[in-house]
Amino acid sequence: MRIENLSALTRGKERLDRLRDGGAKVIGRAIGTLKRRLPAQAKREIGKQYALPSRQIGSRLRCKGDSTSVTLTALGRAQALINFKARQNGTGVVVQIEKGASVTIPHAFIRVPANGRGAGPQVLIRSGAMDSLPGKVVDIAVVSHNRHGYPIVLLGGPAVADMLRDPGREDRLSDFAQATFAAEVDRLAEVARNGR
């Protein structure tokens, strides 16, 4: 997600021109503040909808910027399904991908993969039982074969990049970025003018 033409930049340009360095330092600091606050806001937005721990969301968000724009990027690798509050029951595994909506995956099981030393427990399924996976559940990779030779598949949920692309989220984050940048430019210009 790229936020360009930060409106406060053009709106407050005449106020910034009166400063010693033309406001370059003010704009640089305001961009730095926005680069710090935008991933935190995106993490909060995604965390309201999805049952993924916030540290998992935050570790997949990157933000960079220059003097005219800020870019928020999310890594596109699917999340392991065990991170979505997965628990074993009699028919398979129950997972809560979106808050308030549990999904049952029949024939799935939770186990440490045979060749996945250090991976911890994961949600797995025999490939022959993967006839119909629920909406946001994806197969990530074949991790091993069982004693009968059937491939065992690691299951995952949506990537943070997909979560960031949800309808309306980009508009809300863009509005947040514009408002935050405008407020920060005003605050820093006031500080610079008063000499503090």
Would you spell out the secondary-structure blueprint of this structure?
Blueprint: E1 2-4, H1 7-11, H2 13-17, H3 24-49, H4 54-58, E2 61-65, E3 69-74, E4 79-80, E5 87-88, E6 92-98, E7 101-106, E8 109-111, E9 122-126, E10 138-145, E11 151-157, H5 160-164, H6 169-194
Antiparallel strand pairs: 1-3, 2-3, 4-11, 5-6, 6-7, 8-9, 9-11, 10-11
Alpha plus pi helix count: 6
Distance between the termini: 35 Å
Q: What does the main sheet amount to? A: 5 strands, antiparallel
**Rg from alpha-carbon coordinates:** 23 Å
3D architecture notes:
With 196 residues, this protein is of the alpha+beta class. The chain has two domains: 2-76 and 160-194, no CATH class; 79-157, no CATH class. The chain is 37% helix and 28% strand. The protein is built from six helices and eleven strands. It has helices at 7-11, 13-17, 24-49, 54-58, 160-164, 169-194, and strands spanning 2-4, 61-65, 69-74, 79-80, 87-88, 92-98, 101-106, 109-111, 122-126, 138-145, 151-157. The strands form three sheets. Strands 4, 8, 9, 10 and 11 form a five-stranded antiparallel β-sheet that branches. A hairpin with a 3-residue loop joins strand 2 and strand 3 (69-74).
